[in-house]
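Table S2 (continued). Query chain:
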Amino acid sequence: MSTPITVHVRGSNQAGRPLLLLLHGFGSHEHDLPAIAGHLHPVWDWASLRAPLDAGNGGFSWFPLGVPGRPDPAPVTESTDAVLTWLDANVTSGTVVVPVGFSQGGLMATQLLRTAPERFAAAVVLSGFVLDGPLPGDAALAERRLPVFFGHGDADQVISPDATARTSDWLPRFTVVTDVEYAGLPHTISAEELADASGFLDEVLAG
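Corresponding output:
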């Protein structure tokens, strides 16, 4: 597995500039999520990473598709380690970093918090979920109580309802979660959701 590649970057990662780590969904690429950055406060720099696995048709994935909502933990762990390796090599120590992930990228955002909670200030999970089962970093995450925005639609046809329910149950036990369900929203990101996520990120910086 290769290290994720940063192709799209905004800002110079100067000391004091907070960074959004954009993590796309299955079959997408690093040029996808930067479109949402325009809806967020311009104080944030961002780095959009390409997932390391080739998903075909010009797209990439963080882990192979398997049982809906319950992927094999091994490739998830490998991709998580790859992102942390990229972070060590490219992001100035002490930078406020918030992973923002959609779908598979949303699971990756939760994995980053569960693996290295000391590296992050918060997370934004859009139509994502948490990996089933405990992880070694869970106790440290519960102690830090990082803020997490979890947005999801009640008409999501991709993420299984039990995975969403599991995530809504898990997050309050390990984080300070803002959990918002959007009526009629399928597996996508709405303007309302982006506005809520933007307000959440403003609170993270103010906090």
